[in-house]
Amino acid sequence: MQGAGVDWAVIQSVAWTLVKIMAVVGPLMLAVAYLTYAERKVIGWMQVRIGPNRVGPFGLLQPIADGLKLLMKEIIIPSGANRGLFVLGPILAIAPALAAWAVIPFTDTLVLANINAGLLYVMAITSMGVYGVIIAGWASNSKYAFLGAMRSAAQIVSYEIAMGFALVGVLMAAQSLNLVDIVRGQSGGIHQWYLWPLFPLFIVYLISGVAETNRAPFDVAEGESEIVAGFHVEYSGMAFAVFFLAEYANMILVAALTTLMFLGGWLAPLPFLNDIPGLGWLLGDGMLWWLLKTAFILFLFLWFRATFPRYRYDQIMRLGWKVFIPITLVWIVLVGAMMQTPLGHLFH
Amino acid sequence: MTYTTAIFYFFAAILVFAGLRVITARNPVHAALYLVLAFFTAAGLWMLLEAEFLAIVLVLVYVGAVMVLFLFVVMMLDINLDKLREGFWNYLPLAGFVSVLLVIEMTLILGGRHFGLEVMGAPGPRPADYSNTKELGRFLYTDYVYAFELAAVILLVAIVAAIALTLRRRKDSKFIDPAEQVKVKRNDRLRIIRMPAAKKPDGGEGRA
Known about the structure:
- The structure holds two protein chains of two kinds.
- Chain A is built from 13 helices and no strands.
- Chain A is mainly alpha-helical.
- Chain B is mostly helical.
- Among the domains of chain B are: 1-80, Four Helix Bundle (Hemerythrin (Met), subunit A) (Up-down Bundle), CATH 1.20.120.1200; 131-167.
- Chain B is elongated and about 110 Å long.
C-alpha cells in the first residue's frame, strides 16, 4: 500500500482528531439542548410558574421535541434576500462558537489542542462570531433585521475591548497564554483563584460576557418590543435553530472561560478533597468541579435574564466605554505595579 | 509535494482569488466580505511561517474589529458603483504610476541581497513549548524598545488628531447626565404629606 503514496499515519491522526472533535461537539450540542430546558424551568420557577412539563417526565423531552419541530419546518428564503449570504449567516454564527472549543481544557490532560497561544486563539475566534449576525441582518433585506445587526455589531465591538483588557489581567497574573497553565497557576485552594486579586476584572468579564452573547439585559439586538426579533426575524426552521444553538453554545463557552480564568477550572476549592480515601478521584481536581463551576456561571446568566429589565441602548454604550474600559485599565496598571512590590505574590 | 506545500498553495489560491474579488465585486458589501476572507487566509499563511502571534492578532484586530466597522459603514452607505467607475480612465495613469512604484519597491526588498531566501530562509521547526508571543514581547521591550515606544506615540497622536478633527459638539442635543440620575434621592422627587382622612358628608363610612 505504501506504493500508492498514501500516508496512513496522517490519515490515522486526522481520523483520530475527528473522533475527538465529535467527542467535544456531541456532548456540547446536548448541553445546549438541555440549557434551553434549564432556562425555561429556572425562569419559570423564579416567576412562580411550572415551565415545560408536558413532553416526557418533568418535560425532559421538550428540547428534543422542539428540535424535531424546527427540523421539520420549511426554511423560507425571502424573495428580496441575498440567497448566498442569507444561508451563510447562520453557518458563520455557529462555526466560531464551536471552533473555540478546540483549546478549552476540561482537565489538565483532557484538551483537544493544548496550544501556547490558547487565550489569543479563543479571543480571535470568538471575535469572528459577529459576522454571522451582521451578514444575516444585511442579507435578509429587512429593516428590522438590519437594525438588529447594527445594534449587535456596535455592542459586540465595544464590549470586546473591555473583555480583552480583562483577559490581559489574567495573562499578567498567570504569565502565560496557555489555558492549562492559567488554571495551574491557580492551584492551592480557593484563595489562590484569580477571582480575588482580579476581582474587578472578573466582574467586568462576566458582564461583558453577557453583553457579548447578546443575552438579557443586553439583548437589544433582538429587542422584541421595537424590532420584533432583530437579526433573525426573517429566518425560519433549522436556519433559525442554528442561531439559537450558536447563542447557547456561546453562553457555555463564556461560562467555561470564566471558570478557567477566574474560578480555577477543574481544581477543587479545598486541596484536601484530593486526599479523601475512596472519593478523591471524584471530589478532587477533575471534571466534576469544571462542570459545577460552569453550571453555576450559566445559572447566573439565566438569573440575570429573569431579574433585570433590558438596558437602554445609550446606557449599554456608556457602560462599555466609560465604565468598564477605565476600570480594566486602572486595574491592569495596579496589578502591574503591585507585582513589583513585596506584595507581588498576592497577584502571583 | 509535502503536506505544508499543499496547504500553502491552497491558501495562496484562495488569497489571490479573494483579493481579485475585492476589486472586481460589484456589490461593495461583497467586496468587504471578500477582504475579510483575504485577511483570514493571510493569517493562515502567516501561521505556516510560524508567526502565530501575528496571525492570531491579524484575525483579532482586522477581521474581528476593523472589518466589522468597515462593513458597518459600507452597509449603511448607498454606494452607486457605476458612478464610482466613471473616472476610471482619468485615474488610470496615476494609479499605474503608483502600482509600478510599488512593484519596484517590492522587488528591491524581496529580490535583493538583504531579504532574499539565502539570508532569510524558512524558519526551522521549533519545539512545541516555544512561545512565539513571549519571544516577540521580549524583543519589543528590550532590543527595539525605542522604536516600539516611538511607534506607539505616533499612533496616539494620530488617534488624538482623528478625534479632534471629527469631534463637534452639538448645542441642541439633549442628553442625560447619569451621575445626576444616580444622585437623586426619594425626597427630591416625592413629598409625602400627612392629611386627615375626610369624612363623608352624611357621616360614618361604608354604609353605602
